[in-house]
């Protein structure tokens, strides 16, 4: 069912907290599977995506409890069914690429050998996303992974095997692939080196170090791990998710007179590219780092205020630090005078939807000047976006993609006329209370 999106005639003013970081929350659940001691994470994100990781951890025999925003995982024995005969256990990763890719690396050496293994699958979107970037190097380490339908795609059958360390160079910088190989390498014999991570997020490295694991930093974002180390537990507070905050920061950057502060927000260097782009776009960004660092992650309060708009460019080198923020930055570009250029963004076509195609199509329907290129977008502004009427709103297409839904809600905010979303419920994947938070800001709460 489509739903009408709010609009704003005035500035956006306010202070808010955003939910816990999705990437860190996935890791806080999944790493319980290799921990040798209890694990605890406060401010854990309870959303559809992270619930997939939690369900997998429980299915694999860990006692995991969630309540009062706190996740606790107690390491436990593997279920007998995983070691004996019978059918493979199915783990449904839903829409979550992080669950699927990290589990592949984590389980490849961990599952009992000779058992039926596990069948990893996901929803239609996830079954269409590339897994070869994880499966191929894992196989080179000795992993036993069989495709059930299409080479390089879920579903796959994974069985336990002895792994050997390798030296691997990723073709595309991916934190998910890097994490999968580090988790496999930690349980392999010898040393595993992962190169080509560039400026990708390092939440896995930080949490593993908190758990007592030694990792070696290599030049240009490379990292190495030696197998067979003792792994402890952790007690962390998950910072607010900068990818969720980015929607409100961008709204403040687009509506004259606005100022929005997000408190307790994660500021991992691999995640804050959008703030750099906002500064380049003439937006006022103030970061108060007094709250961090804490438990291995940077955090602080970030205030974004409307400034002197100007166009921006983004290239491949910067892409990993803002890969999830491209849809909303493209929306911002429609309000900036001149031509904004996004290049090196081919990965966007392989996310929860083809984000380059969907962003371009929706913004064009709103009247923006957007040229879709093979690996990017060229957006000329400023253009006042235009929706429909209250009784016949322009229905925007999310492709069931949470980040598209929230970016399009920000586009609708400043548009003339009214817009609706075809599938507003998909925000549950990462930010179930997104519309409530937006309404709160609009009401000046
Ligand atoms: C993630 C890494 C990114 C990002 C995704 C979450 C992670 O993917 O797009 O939403 O938690 O490691 P890649 O690094 O694979 O591009």
Task: Write a structural description.
With 445 residues, the protein is an alpha/beta fold. The chain folds into 2 domains: 3-20 and 239-442, Enolpyruvate transferase domain (UDP-n-acetylglucosamine1-carboxyvinyl-transferase, Chain), CATH 3.65.10.10; 22-237, Enolpyruvate transferase domain (UDP-n-acetylglucosamine1-carboxyvinyl-transferase, Chain), CATH 3.65.10.10. The protein is built from 14 helices and 23 strands. A 4-stranded mixed β-sheet has the order 2-15-17-16. The protein has a 4-stranded mixed β-sheet with strand order 4-5-3-14, covered by helices on one side. Strands 6-7-9-8 form a 4-stranded mixed β-sheet. The longest helix has 13 residues, at 242-254. It is globular.
The overall average pLDDT, rounded, is 96
What structural class do helix, strand and pairing data support? alpha/beta
Poorly predicted ranges (pLDDT <50, ≥5 residues)? none
| Ions, cofactors and other bound molecules | shikimate-3-phosphate
CATH architect. name of the largest domain = Alpha-beta prism
Determine the strand fraction and express it as a percent band.
15-25%
CATH class membership of the largest domain: Alpha Beta
Number of domains: 2
In brief:
Strand 6, helix 4 (97-108) and strand 7 (118-121) form a beta-alpha-beta unit. The radius of gyration is 22 Å and the shape is globular.
Summarize this structure as a short list of keywords or feature phrases:
445 residues, single chain, UDP-n-acetylglucosamine1-carboxyvinyl-transferase, Chain, globular, 4-stranded mixed beta sheet, 29% helix, alpha/beta, 2 domains, binds shikimate-3-phosphate, 23 strands, 23% strand
